[in-house]
Amino acid sequence: MLEAAAIFLAGFWAGTINVVVGSGTLVTFPTLLLFGYPPLTANISNNIGLVAGGLSGTWGYRKELAPNKVMLNRLLPASLAGGLAGAVLLLILPSSAFKTIVPVLIIIGLLMVAFGPMLQRRLTRRGTTGPTHSAAALLAGIFVLGMYGGYFGAAQGILIVGLMGIMTQVALQQINAVKNVLTTAVNGIAAITFMLVAWQYIDWRVTALIAAGSLLGGLIGARFGRLLPPVALRATIIAVGAAALVKMLLFS
């Protein structure tokens, strides 16, 4: 009962911070390892369980999502393709292949979140940015982050927010709404892949507990995250990302 409660609460917290910030995997994945689940089983079961939180969080951010449906339709295929590629890589590559670069990616994402507005203003003054600015680069970036998300996914949301904050002129809360859809799509396509070709690595008890917790957490996270002003939301993203980085570097 204690183990089940801990996994449920980890799923709840992961669902909450995934919707507002990202990096929920850094809560649930270590929790599963703590209770002795093999890394591959923990990663795959966690991925499938967090889909529920992504769906509830996306529903909670539906108003902020509405103005950017055209952009979302362009980015979604890149996320899905990347998520599929990442899921396949998880099954054929050693876990060390991507884990070694996770801290570097988180640092880059935090820098993009912190300095994105300043860089965007400079680009605007120079006349080098606009609605179609670096569209190919943005698609490529979303694909790469989708691949990373399908493989492991820790702080994928932070990286997407940072990338879109620099390469688009969309408001931060609207970026967060798009981020929720993209990360959910990545988790979803990866989950389908795992269920088709890696069923033996799925612990459905764990998946159900994380799904239940993250479903509730996604609703709570969306309710409170939407109320945060841009400065507070940006500060929250940086604080959670920095904490995740310290945890990975010092306590993994």
Q: Your description of this structure?
A:
With 252 residues, this protein is mostly helical. The chain is built from twelve helices and no strands. Helix 1 runs parallel beside helix 11 (204-225) and helix 8 (135-151) crosses helix 10. The model is unreliable at 128-133 (pLDDT under 50).
Structure summarized in a few sentences:
This protein is mainly α and 252 residues long.
Per the principal axes of the C-alpha atoms, what is the gross shape? globular
Number of strands: 0
Biggest sheet, open or closed, and with what strands and sense?
A: none
Number of helices: 12
Spatial separation of the terminal alpha carbons = 26 Å
Mean pLDDT: 83
Taking pLDDT < 50 over at least 5 consecutive residues as the criterion, the unreliable ranges are 128-133
Q: In percent, how much strand structure appears in the residues?
A: under 5%
- Fraction of helical residues: over 70%
Helix-and-strand structural type:
mainly alpha
Q: Compute the gyration radius: what is it? A: 17 Å
Question: In terms of quaternary structure, what is this?
Answer: single chain
Using brief descriptors, characterize the structure shown.
12 helices; mainly alpha; 252 residues
